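Support case: user asked for a sample of complex input and structure output to validate their parser. Sending the pair below.
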Amino acid sequence: MVLVVEDEPLLRMMAADLAEEAGFDVMEAANADEALAILEVRTDIRIVFTDVDMPGSMDGMKLAAAIRGRWPPVELIVTSGHHRMADLSLPERGVFFEKPYDRRTVMATMRRMAA
Amino acid sequence: MSSHLSTPGLRPIPPPPYDEALRLAALASYDILDTPRERDFDDVAALASALCGTPIGVVNLIGDGRQFFKAEVGLGVRETPLASSFCAKAILEEEFLLVPDATKDPRFECNPLVTGAPSLRFYAGALLRTEEGLPIGTVCVLDFQPRRLTDLQQQALRVLARQVMKQLELRRALAERDRAEERRSILIQELGHRLKNTLAIVQSVAGQTLKGVTERSAVETFERRLIALGRAHDVLLQENWASAPMRAIAERVLSLTGESRIAIAGPDVQFGSRATLSTSLVLHELATNATKYGALSADGGTVDLSWRREPGPDGEDFVLTWRETGGPPPAEPSRTGFGTRLIRLGLAGTGGVTIRYPDSGFVAEFRSALSAVALS
């Protein structure tokens, strides 16, 4: 199961499609709070795919750090149109993609993470 | 000391001929109160004191209930409350105020600084007046004994006051320009980010719209061109959308291939925004072709991307060469697709492209006036 966290609906739909195409079941969250609520109750989430720039109490970087702390086995993919990898300190095993991203590369990364 | 001030007989200060709130706002706009000592103003205070032969010289700003000495010699303090000061607000009332002996001047005879320590006797000050005519302070000299000033000394104080005012005006103008520049920069960054987000949305819309298209390679080609465009925008965004270094353009776009077999070499050349976009797309097409059919499709293949400046018919030319080696013998494409047309447009959309297919590998040379790529 992949959890897609993205506030922009079109981009969330695209990311969800991509994860499905890569062979995963998908859940969607529009912000970090929704994502954490899902993670509290679902134990089958292997990968969280999150945008960095989101409204709400936490941005994607804080969400990623929180997930790494509370659910260490969950893999993290972080994406942003505003930031570049050099500006960000990713949690351990986190992977960054700049928007717009290459769907094939992201799918390959998801499959590798789940393997 | 305040008991001295309330002494009947201290001459009341007449209401100023200007709005005090406006005056304070004008003073605040120079952002000079409570700033550290600076040579520019220290020099003025020292020169005023030396020219007039007085022990004390001051660049004095009158704030709300206090005066701040931006520069002083002979006083040893940077600030005094206004009520007890020699330079009371009265000094803001005349363009040039000369008090040869304060004990004989009704405006000062009861001032504690005159009647008690440090027994100041002499004051001469030229007004610091804003462009709107608001008085904000003085350049003044003081002495512990009565004295006179020559016309030339008085003139010198006026000139110094005008120069201090000019200095303040220029600093304010520079600070305003910096703030405007900063706002502009923030706006450009914000627009750039929105543009990248929009590109991602276009990618999403296209992905959804073209879901049923069976020719997936066309969809992927479109998607990758969009990503290359996004990278080009990103490089431009690093330098406020004005220009980008050729090396950064090449590295950002070619990193999309994930290839380590493309060698990049050339001198520093700063590309304009239009040439950055078109060159990014050209490099993307070249790399895509190399990966699909050219040198990078074979194990031992490599690409050399290099550029140079050389004399041309109209000033300097910019020449960029893409040279593939170690791949299968290249063949001229049978049809002219969008990618080929894009490549033939050249670096600045003006052509100047030479393409060769020798057995050793595909070679493309792009030539353009340097002014066309650097400015377009």
